Amino acid sequence: TFTVLQLETPVICYTPQPVSASCPIVMTPPRVVVKHGGSFSVICSTSEAQVEGMGWESSLGAVSLTDNVTSLPFKITALTQWTFSPQCYMNLLNGDQCQQRLSVTVYKMPDSVTISPSSHLGPMVEGKKYSLRCDIDKVAPVKNLSVIWQKRNETIHSQSYNSEVNTPVQESSVLIISPSRDDNGAQIHCAAQLNLGPMGPNPAVMTVTTLCSPTGGLTTFAAIIGAGVILGAILAVVLGMLVTSEGTFSTTKGSWLAGRTSSSGII
């Protein structure tokens, strides 16, 4: 059994910042982190006095050249592309033009995060090695993904990915564990975390939990007790065969010797 927790917050963080010293354009915000299908707006502005006009170009529509302005807004109501890079341009009175692109990160939280044993079904035995696989379904962008394994709120393994693919992908992470008696009932968490920076949702995390139950198999202590019980039963049977009715030991009890009878009579 497992529980899934997903937390997301809107992306609103504006800090005006010049994109380039050679092109005096300020983007507010300087970069955008937006959920796929979500909306955002940005303002392109300049402190340059000799401006003829400004405009926006993008693969989802444009804002035509607008004369005699030093700021121009741009808005997307539903971002349906995974790679998006709108451009603001500015025409100067001397005939020059400069332009800057807005950095846009489009993200998607996983559809699901699940933990499953990759090589074992059933109870775990103390001291043996087992592998748990955490599957992250349809997450983007994977280059911002970190998978964090925790036991009792302590990080025991983490993994990141270097792919430049922007569309949703399925990834997995494998954890090797060797349970001990103290791990009985311990919770193991797998968290899929998108590291999207200060402009992104905080936290952008989906977590799944499983229980470590090594007591379903024989632990070392239980194995010792079980072996002692079996050995005791075997010893009792052997003693019953060797002890005579007079309370003495005889290796010939209940057996036939040529020319004489045993203490228990002829068989």
TrEMBL record:
Subcellular location: Membrane
UniProt xrefs under Gene3D superfamilies: Immunoglobulins
Main localisation: membrane
GO molecular function: integrin binding
Gene Ontology biological process terms in this record: cell-cell adhesion
PROSITE patterns documented for this protein: IG_LIKE
Keyword tags: Cell adhesion, Disulfide bond, Glycoprotein, Immunoglobulin domain, Membrane, Repeat, Signal, Transmembrane, Transmembrane helix
Residue ranges annotated for the Ig-like domain, each copy included: 110-209
Alphabetized InterPro entries for the sequence: ICAM_N (IPR013768), ICAM_VCAM (IPR047012), ICAM_VCAM_N (IPR003987), Ig-like_dom (IPR007110), Ig-like_dom_sf (IPR036179), Ig-like_fold (IPR013783)
Protein family per UniProt: Belongs to the immunoglobulin superfamily. ICAM family.
Name used for this protein in its record: Ig-like domain-containing protein
Organism of origin: Myripristis murdjan
